[in-house]
Amino acid sequence: MEELNQWSLYSWKNKEIVQNVVYKDKKKYESILEKLDVLPPLVHQDEIEKLKEQLREVAENKRFLLQGGDCAELFEYCNKDNIENQLKILLKQSLILIWGGRTSVVRIGRMAGQYAKPRSSPVEIIDGKEYPSYRGDIVNGYEIDDREPNPDRLLQSYFHSSATLNYIRSLINTGFADLHKAEHWNLSHIRNQTLREEHEAIIDQLRTSLEFLNIVGIGKNSNPSLETIDFFVSHEGLLLDYESQFTKKVVDPTDSNKTEKWYNLGTHFLWIGDRTRQLNGAHVEYFRGIQNPIGIKVGPSMKPQELIDLLDIVDPNFELGKVTLITRYGFDKIEQYLPDHIKAVQSTKHRIIWCCDPMHGNTVKSSIGLKTRNFDNILGELKKAFEIHKSLNSNLNGVHFEMTGEKGVTECIGGSMQITEKDLKKNYQTNCDPRLNYEQSLDISLLIAQLLRA
Ligand code: PEP
Ligand code: MN
After folding, report:
1. Are 440 and 407 in contact (CB under 8 A)?
2. What per-residue confidence (pLDDT) applies to 224?
3. Residue 203 to residue 257: CA distance in whole angstroms
4. How many angstroms is it from 248 CA to the middle of ligand 1?
5. 2 pLDDT above the threshold of 70
6. What is the tens place of the pLDDT at every residue in 375-401?
7. How far is the CA of 371 from the centre of ligand 2 (A)?
8. Which residue, by CA, sits nearest to atom 6 of ligand 1?
9. What is the full DSSP assignment across 401-450?
10. CB 402 within 8 A of CB 68
11. The whole model's pTM is what?
């Protein structure tokens, strides 16, 4: 492989920038970047290092990773109910996974900054007319008369991210996440009686365990981690100028020499999308210079050797848990691709986290034209991921979902509510990819808990 040049904050500008956004008002764009540069960071490097410590345990198969949230976070989702609902479902899912895997869970939301979307086409045809595609609230609006990239939105993204993160922190600091509160979880949406009874039994056992801990007094005093939790945020690192404004050289708290290193202080965890992971591209160049733990989406087009080359670039020091490979093939393709990817990584010294995103390879257009995903295919890809890892002496260390904490959303078909194609229109909300609704998110974690126990 060719020698890599020296990394610098803007060395990515010498590479091809895939999915680049061009702003008409360059002066305004520059002035907004300057403003972002001086605004306070959203997270502290100590938190990033804390997450890295936990991810090292994930890589060693001592913990399980749960990452989830909206495909495209919207500015309008930055409100009390939505943030509470999203946090609540992620916490419930993680409790179920803790019960299932008998291991603690690292929780990372696709939240507080998941505003930029890569698109398969820069344009969209609506009623025979061509419009620029919607590229996420950080770039343009979903309404067709608001599709021109607007630099003001970069600043709005920062403020919406900080308001979201601020409320998440308040909730967590004031007991919202108290795992002792064994509240009633309504499973009445499950139409199949046998499944409902199975799942109610899991919840009952979970509740009994929590009550037991309460009665014997374990937790409250002796184990503070049961009272409050760690919650981290993440987003796709797509707009590199935006990300660069948050990227600061600060003291690495784990380094006894107090060396200053580059951290992206705009989020805890960033990932490279499947469309922007070119070995010689700008995104990989930016990512290789930051200390944050990073994700890489891995789809069918990734060649095994390319995966090795990519890991060599972003993880030259073979750091345990630095990289999370988020695989997303589709339930009908995973058997064809995952084994070779596992073997490729096994042939190296990279000690990565394997995470299954069973959403992005399973997107289809429904007969009524709306994008959807079938719950059975999502579950199918997950099941196969567990099996394939096991058969190759590897471990599936985590899961990655697109989901909403809102009840009764109808974007994915199937699940225990038995949503059909005909139901999709009832409560289809997403501007981007279809998400599991609250009920389906519970369903899937109960099913994973069973897989973890198997
Ligand atoms: C996403 O996570 O929303 C996404 C665009 O994924 P991918 O890069 O895997 O297609
Ligand atoms: Mn998506």
Report:
1. no
2. 47
3. 48
4. 26
5. no
6. 999 999 999 999 999 999 999 999 999
7. 11
8. 273
9. EEB-S-TT--SSBBTTTTB-GGGGGGG---SSS--B-HHHHHHHHHHHHH
10. yes
11. 0.95
